[in-house]
Amino acid sequence: MKYLLIMHMNPRIWESLTEAERQSVMEGHGKFIETIRESGELVSTEALGDPSASAVVRVRDGAPVVTDGPYLETKEYLGGYYLVDVENKERAYELAALIPDASVDGLGIEVRPVMFSAGMEM
């Protein structure tokens, strides 16, 4: 079953960390990727760019309208994800706990089943 392990970024929290703490988190991602690649559970992973570089597309009266900026004004935004294929949700929770961001006060990992993979079980 596939799960998306979603990392939310909060710039206020991230900037409150020391340079060594930020470096530790980044190195921890490398170790995490190696672990889930070796176990065969990694499907894909991506880090996303800053929301200030995003655009929102809406179709109004049949014409696309593109506006700059994030969809919602929030303190947190989607920073990246790991798509994993695991035995069950408990394993997804275990993997989420290994992501270094989960150990940072104020941050966490959202674990969400992938709908087409889960089928009617959701």
UniProtKB/TrEMBL annotation:
InterPro entries on file: Dimeric_a/b-barrel, YCII
Short name of one Pfam family: YCII
Domain of life: Bacteria
Domain YCII-related: 1-114
SUPFAM superfamilies in UniProt: Dimeric alpha+beta barrel (SSF54909)
Family statement drawn from the similarity comment of this UniProt entry: Belongs to the YciI family.
Protein name, UniProt field: YCII-related domain-containing protein
Species of origin: Amycolatopsis acidiphila
